[in-house]
Design brief:
Number of domains of chain A: 5
Low-confidence stretches of chain A: 719-723
Oligomer: heterodimer
Helix content of chain B: 10-25%
Number of strands of chain B: 16
Helix content of chain A: 40-55%
Radius of gyration of chain B: 17 Å
Order of helices and strands of chain B: EEEEHHEHEHEEEEEEEEEE
Number of domains of chain B: 1
Structural class of chain B: alpha/beta
Mean pLDDT of chain A: 88
Number of strands of chain A: 26
Chain lengths: 818, 212
């Protein structure tokens, strides 16, 4: 019998080119580069924008390799490749693309999707017959690792593709991917890893995180697809009547209408879900004829509702959709002609990505309209245009040493077939996130899941992961069940599902909102007025109401801060504004406001740091404007307050926005002394920040997510709230109890580290302080509130820092109450 | 440790910074919501609450009994957090050291131990208790003639200062016809109370109790 030679790479690529030609497409350079590299057995990362053909750049060679394998020997059925998508909405399109090529190439591969939405029966079927290509999410991949017989399932794996890697990178989901990949690589050394990503400032690092210390060859492929983005601001008609703070841009609603009329479909992005709800309402108020042709899309709306909106977008049935970051990702909506961004996006990449959702035809222009929500925000419009023009784009900082994710992962493995600690120790040391974990830390993590950490108890009954013949396993079924329910790193507050009396889900609201409602109250949600009927088992029953209402649920979300790119461009715009050399229409419009700022205080140039002192009946205010973004201001203000408090007992409350921050005290603040004695120097920065952090509550807030990921706080199963009632507690409680009893706790330390890296962005803070050291300090005493300080003053989220003894403070508060 | 004194229906009650109440005329120590065994309950479910919480609670209880030398310890419910676990033995041992002191438990929603467990600890259990001008219960309630003293709520209050400073603290909270005690146990949360003009509120701060 003649043995057929397997096809060469060149022959395989010809097959791919032929198939492309048959579809009427031309393979692009980056696609060929990926095919080649993949067939040569390389790992890599492809950067390409959505809609550029990135899917086939990696889908194709996976299938080509299958053709080659088939020509060598008959293949067993089973899993060969996993495609990771960050959101479920993307999975269907990938499935369709894969199916199309598989059919045409005559492969007998099956393709399946597995996400949280996949039914139990489909999952069971998948377990018996795994598809060759599985499209899934990081969470569902971990669910597979928590199955018995997982190693067997993955034994023939050839490739994992992490799609939209930039979306995962700046989150703990990337850490989850790193851990899963480290195990898969150990099981199947022949496996390759590829990623697909939008452009970021740190592509090389992004690749290193994905590949870990995989010894195989690696390559970064960049698609040369350039898009032209046109940025324009919706300028308020009369700047003197435009609010200084605290609004959401509703005054510009009637100016947005013409944009809707000019385009087939418009996406209106808002920064929060409640803004989206209010914009939807406001649009209907000014243009009732839009009823039925505008849609609402945000993360708290029921999946079915969102699916309907997405489908209607495709079918060109909608004139506009008001949405949040929920539509940042996902399949392309070709009819979209223009984008509206309400309020500062805080981030150039996010803005560019949203802009890119319009104008999908080749060579088409992407149009984005920026709607400022308060006067000063106009500056951001000018800054964004400049950033887009100069091609500035943010880096995404990867998480490292996320012990909460590691704890969860170990229990996941223990729920599955169990693990040997020396093997996993070796595997995790190949990941970016955990390559610096010391033996001592590893022991602590193991102790955390096996003995529950240090305890002084004579009789302990801690039970989670147990060790049998060197294999770490979960034996208790209740623990295994609870763990499976909590796999994942996307945390949220306890939410209540909102349901019509007659049936049909609308979405979810936070428990705290639900608890403030009385029977009969009417609130606005999902684009309609709803009357609260009753609540039970975490479900709120409602009926439609004709009554209008002012109540709109708010969903807690982290407040976004300027990225470093955004703050750089904003400072440049500010400098040009101060020097009067700008031609931006936004700045021109701001003229009267800037004149007022000059008259009462000062408009600082790049070499100046503006400090304003104001006295009100609330106390002594000091405002400082570094224009570095909320995150950096948070650290800087705490640092300054702490250092001033070392000079003598004083308490502050602190507020900030992206432009500057405020210290407020009952006593006079010795701010000039502070600058004279160099209180913003970088000496002992880490030490002083940590000291001031202990007193503020940042780490405590950070701990909320950590406690949930590490499995300390269990959110309960749907409909079974009662069974776990006695296991309910809050991250706050854990934080306090760890601080008192186990201050060296790994998760507690992680909370502090995360604050330094992600919240305060220590390295940015350091750079900012160094920059300030070179600036002239300009202190003014405005006779009244200035346009700059007003938005900070009205901010209600405040930090507290004090050097006074708790008792003294209470006595003082008390004295005031009497 | 400085106590504060409140007079209710002509009876003087001492409020202690240890989050307990002492009634001198009856030499009774009154404590609510100890939630013993809570940490262990979590630990058994694989949630690593530091075990030291249990010892701390027992130790604080012991110290209080030694320093006040009461005739009776009156527990206003939620003494034990959930199903039986090894911490109960710790309570039995503690109780045995004070054989001449009477221990009474007005049961709360968390007190789900078997009758025999309470018997072992020589603990009298009652659904409520009327004594002097007071109606003691776990859940706050209205009584036609007596002043209600209860637990269950874990009352806390947010102190507000002039420069928008706030801080949450556990408190004793006395209304016109009923009062609630702070939760004694470590590893218990706070429920934020809304106060009216008439309410008398005392916060516990370190080693003092302050009227606010």
């Amino acid at each position: 019998m003649r043995v057929q030679k397997p096809p060469s790479d060149r022959a395989l690529i010809t097959t791919a080119v032929d198939w492309f030609t048959a579809q009427g497409w031309d393979p692009q350079k980056f696609q060929r580069a990926c095919w080649q590299a993949y067939l040569q057995g390389k790992n890599g990362l492809l950067t390409a924008p959505t809609g550029s053909g990135k899917t086939y750049a990696l889908l194709m060679p996976i299938l080509l390799e299958a053709l080659r394998m088939r020509s060598i020997a008959k293949q067993k059925r089973g899993l060969r490749a996993i495609w990771i998508a960050p959101i479920r909405a993307l999975t269907k399109e990938i499935e369709a693309s894969a199916q199309r090529a598989i059919n045409d190439l005559g492969l007998d591969w099956s393709v399946a999707i597995r996400t949280g939405d996949t039914t139990a029966s489909s999952r069971a079927k998948q377990k018996r017959n795994m598809p060759e290509l599985l499209i899934t999410t990081p969470e569902s991949l971990h669910m597979l690792l928590a199955q018995k017989g997982a190693a067997e399932l993955f034994s023939e794996m050839r490739c994992v593709v992490a799609d939209e890697w930039h979306e995962l990178l700046g989150s703990k989901r990337a850490v989850q991917m790193e851990l899963a990949l480290s195990r898969l690589r150990a099981w199947c050394p022949a496996m390759r890893t590829w990623g697909i990503s939008a452009t970021m400032g740190n592509m090389d690092q992004a690749m290193d995180v994905l590949l870990g210390s995989d010894p195989g060859e690696r390559v970064l492929v960049r698609a040369a697809v350039k898009k032209v983005i046109e940025v324009s601001s919706v300028l308020p008609k009369d700047i003197r009547k435009f609010p200084w703070a605290g609004h959401i841009g509703l005054r510009s609603v009637d100016q947005v209408l013409p944009i809707l009329q000019e385009n087939r479909t418009t996406l209106i992005f808002t920064n929060t879900r409640s803004f989206a709800e209010r914009w939807y309402q406001a649009l209907l108020d000014v243009a009732p004829d839009l009823a039925g042709v505008i849609g609402l899309h945000h993360g708290s709306l029921d999946r079915a509702t969102r699916d309907w909106v997405e489908q209607a977008l495709h079918d060109e049935k909608l004139k506009a959709v008001i949405c949040t970051s929920s539509l940042d990702l996902g399949v392309d909506f070709r009819p979209v002609g223009a984008i509206v961004q309400v309020g500062g996006p805080k981030n150039v990449a996010r803005f560019a990505q949203r802009a890119g959702r319009s104008g999908h035809r080749p060579g088409a222009l992407s149009q984005i309209h920026f709607v400022p929500t308060h006067a000063l925000e106009l500056l951001e419009g000018a800054a964004l245009r400049m950033a887009i023009k100069e091609g500035r784009i943010e880096s995404r900082i990867p998480y490292a040493r996320s012990f909460d994710v590691l704890c969860q992962y170990l229990v996941t493995l223990a729920v599955g077939d169990g693990f040997r600690q020396e093997e996993v120790r070796k595997e995790i040391s190949t990941t970016f996130s955990f390559n610096s974990v010391s033996d001592e830390e590893w022991e602590q993590v193991l102790a955390f899941v096996t003995t529950g950490g240090p305890t002084l108890l004579a009789y302990d009954e801690f039970k989670k992961v147990e060790v049998e013949d060197g294999v770490y396993k979960v034996l208790d079924r209740g623990i295994a069940l609870r763990h499976r329910m909590s796999i994942g790193t996307i945390t949220s507050d306890t939410s209540i599902r909102v349901k019509f009396l007659k049936g049909g889900y609308i979405g979810t609201v936070e428990e705290s909102f639900a608890s403030r409602l009385d029977v009969g109250d009417v609130f606005w949600f999902g684009g309609r007025n709803l009357e609260f009927v009753s609540i039970r088992n975490m479900e709120m029953l409602v009926r439609s109401s004709k009554e209008a209402s002012g109540k709109i649920p708010s969903w807690l979300g982290g407040r976004m801060s300027f990225s470093s790119e955004m703050s750089v461009v904003l400072r440049e715009v500010m400098d040009r504004t101060a020097k009067g050399i700008t031609t931006d229409p936004e700045v021109k419009k701001l003229g009267p406001l800037l004149a007022k700022q000059r008259e009462r205080s000062h408009v600082p140039q790049a070499n100046e740091l503006l400090v304003e002192r104001i006295r009100t009946k609330e106390g002594h205010h000091v405002f400082i404007y570094p224009f570095e973004g909320r995150a950096v201001h948070e650290g800087m203000s705490a640092l300054l307050a702490y250092r001033i408090s070392l000079l003598g007992p004083i308490s502050f409350s602190i507020a900030m926005n992206d432009y500057g921050f405020e210290l407020l005290s009952e006593q006079e603040i010795p701010i000039r002394d502070a600058f004279d004695s160099d209180l913003l120097s970088t000496d002992h920065l880490r030490h002083d920040i940590e000291r001031s952090l202990n007193e503020t509550e940042m780490a405590r807030r950070r701990f909320r997510d950590i406690a949930q990921v590490a499995g300390l706080v269990f959110k309960g199963y749907p409909g079974k709230a009662k069974a776990v009632r006695h296991l309910q507690s809050s991250a706050q409680l854990f934080f306090s109890v760890f601080e008192d009893m186990d201050p060296n706790n790994l998760l507690l330390r992680q909370a502090h580290e995360e604050v330094m890296t992600f919240q305060l962005e220590e390295s940015r803070l350091r750079n900012a302080l160094e920059r300030i050291a070179t600036q002239n300090i300009v202190i003014t005493d405005p006779p009244s509130i200035t346009p700059f300080c007003f938005p900070i003053m009205v901010d209600r989220l405040r930090e507290l820092l004090t050097s006074e003894k708790l008792e003294d403070r209470i006595a003082r508060m008390k004295a005031q109450l009497e | 440790m400085k106590r504060a004194v409140i007079q209710i229906r002509k009876e003087k009650l001492q409020l202690m910074p240890q989050k307990a109440m002492f009634w001198p005329t009856r030499k009774t120590l009154i404590i609510a919501d100890v939630h013993l065994g809570k940490a262990m309950h979590f630990r058994r479910a694989g949630i690593p609450v530091p075990g030291g919480v249990e010892q701390l609670n027992l130790q604080r209880l012991e110290d209080l009994i030694v320093s006040t030398r009461p005739n009776e310890v009156l527990l206003l419910g939620d003494l034990f957090h959930s199903d039986l676990n090894s911490t109960w033995q710790g309570f039995i041992d503690l109780r045995a050291k004070h054989a001449s002191t009477k221990f009474t438990l007005v049961t709360g929603n968390h007190d789900v131990l078997e009758e025999q467990d309470y018997t072992k600890a020589k603990l009298d259990t009652l659904p409520f208790l009327d004594r002097g001008p007071f109606h003691f219960s776990h859940h706050p309630t209205e009584h036609s003639s007596l002043y209600n003293l209860a637990g269950h709520v874990h009352p806390g209050i947010r102190m507000v200062g002039k420069a928008k400073q706030t801080i949450p603290l556990p408190c004793f909270f006395f209304g016109k016809t009923a009062g609630v005690l702070p939760a004694f146990g470590a590893f218990t949360g706070l429920y934020r109370m809304k106060r009216k003009e008439i309410d008398r509120v005392f916060v516990t701060v370190q080693d003092r109790v302050l009227r606010v």
